[in-house]
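Hello everyone,

My group is preparing for a crystallization screen and wants a predicted model to guide construct design. The compound we'll soak is zinc ion. Before spending weeks at the bench, it would help to have a computed complex in hand. I've included the protein sequence and the ligand's SMILES below. Output in structure-token form would be ideal because that's what our pipeline reads.
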Amino acid sequence: MSTTIDETSKRYGRLVVLAREGKKWKCKCDCGNIFMTPGNPLRRGATVSCGCYNKEKSTKHGCCKKSLHLYRKWRAMIKRCYYEETDSYYLYGARGITVCDRWRNDISLFFEDMYEEYIKHVSLHGKYNTTIDRIDSNKNYEKSNCRFLTRREQANNTRSNNFITYKGKTKTISEWTRFLNIPMTALYSRIYKRKWTIDKSFNTPVSIKRKSLELDFNGEKRSISSISKEVNVDRGVLYHRIIKLNWTIERAIKTPVKARQSKKRQG
Ligand SMILES: [Zn+2]
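Reply:
Good plan to model first. Here are the tokens for the complex, ready for your pipeline.
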């Protein structure tokens, strides 16, 4: 364990470090974005901007024009690993999965490594059926560990990579969810996000909480679905905000729902 080096007010590329927040550094990018990052990639020179540098580079090298679809795959990969607010972050970034510096830093190098294989796969299976896969799901995104698979192959592969042994029985995580009658999302969340032991994850009942999930709304006990219909906010959004983020009902209802596209960075 090393002691934390104080990075406050230092400059790394386009980023100026503002303050320590939790285990990360809060930085301001020259483009105006506020960006959170661990100290290591800053000092190594792996992170030089909020992402705007790469965006410019991808335009310059024409990666976007070459394949917007592959460009989006690259972005999604970065988000899964580095942006905590991404839905699937707990399966990637939170588990320590990273993107190699070569790719994270320079999208044109990602294209250099993967574009040819990508085009081959697309010509055989179509764009929609082309997903990027890590051969070893405990290892990072880097050329030697990545390939393209169809959605079905990807799904099978994801499952087969998550073997769990409990009381002498080895099953995939999806087999366990059926065996234990615990929803997949709940089991994933317990094991990987909340870092419960297998024993606790397998033996804590889910149904009680779910059934009694009634909230006080305008003086009545109401389910999230019925509130969702009344206020016209997506049920999933309400559920996420109230249950997962622990927001008040009022805040969950009144905060506007961001469209996916509006998350795009500026500059
Ligand atoms: Zn920026």
